[in-house]
Amino acid sequence: MKSQKGGWHGGCIWVIRSDKHSGKSRAHWKESKMAKVDSIGWSHRKAVNAVIGGGCIAPTVILNITRCCTERCAHCAVSAIYGATVEKCADQAIRETEAGRELKLEQWLSSLDRLLDEAPATKFDLSGGDCLALPWVRHELIPWLVEHTSPSQVAVTATAATLRIWLAELARMVNYPRPGSVHITLDGCSEYSRDNLSIARDIRRLGMGIHAECPVTTNNVARDTIIRIYGDASDAGISEITLIRFFPVGRGALASGMLEPSPDEYRKAIRIWQELGRGCGPKIKFQCALKCFAQPDIQGACKIGPAAWCAMPNGTMLSCPWAYAQQGQPLHQDFVIGNITQSSVAELLANSVTSHMKTQVGTVDSCATIAYARLARINQEHAA
After folding, report:
1. Residue among 352, 382, 380 at smallest CA distance from 57
2. Which pTM was predicted?
3. Structural domain of residue 251, as residue ranges?
4. Alpha carbon distance 299, 310 (integer Å)
5. Cβ-based burial of 311 (10 A; exposed 0-12, middle 13-18, buried ≥19)
6. Could you tell me if residue 279 is left (phi over 0), alpha (psi between -120 and 50 degrees) or otherwise beta?
7. Who has the most CB within 10 Å: 216, 228, 281, 352?
8. Count of domains forming the chain
């Protein structure tokens, strides 16, 4: 006697058949399928085709245009290449492009044109590194992307150093295409964070929304610090704060012992943020990797899969934006779903479903990426 359960998982239909008499569980089903996971089964291909055919695919794609950055944060996931000034950062990016480690403007445009032809509702977040250090991102890529989508589909994440240059350029241009929102980092501790906050009103004056991302570390889990961060964001007119878990990936792998909060510290900090978010100030959102610490538990599936992808500077596509090893390489091949210069949306979607299956099996931590990162660290220590 076969029963069938179905539902939505990460934006894609899943179907599980279980045998009531044998008591097979979903975990057993996943384990039994792993031997064949490299060639997606018929039911998954049918789901992929149904989503694309229905025109409902709308992933968020983070475009990490460059690893070059004007900051050198200890928790940087991409192990950004530091440039002391915007000019030095741009020069380094040119060298990275010439060496074939980063895509050229023409490659980004042709790849995005093809992607939008297949999935026109896709949303984008241009990031890095510090993508605005590259003049062609400010003058060509952003206007092109806004004109081929809509402002609400485009966001930019950058540092205050390059945002000031870009905002000054926009202020001189009437009716120039601009994205719907700008994302800044706001940890409440660093000079970098204070610089970002200082330009919030300039961003709003130019008609763009502003959202803050707060990486939760041991430096900002105290109640007084959280209240100050929330008050500063409210005073600056920031409408939304997304709390980000500390990821021991990229350069952050070297700082995890100092910066990564304990589970109890996470829980206490999140309770404070939840209290503040019930007021009339900025709304509080939780990254999926943090939801396991929230009380009451905030349910939410891991976004590895069709919901959010990341394009690395060389075009490699990851199923998780945080799945970086040190020196800007993929954390593990299980997170690689294709290349933006070559792969179709159908291929990326199918591979992201496979990636979800691979990375969730045997994962103890609620976040598969963090579980992989910790395992990689253990393997490195044993090898040494």
Report:
1. 352
2. 0.83
3. 60-373
4. 23
5. buried
6. beta
7. 352
8. 1
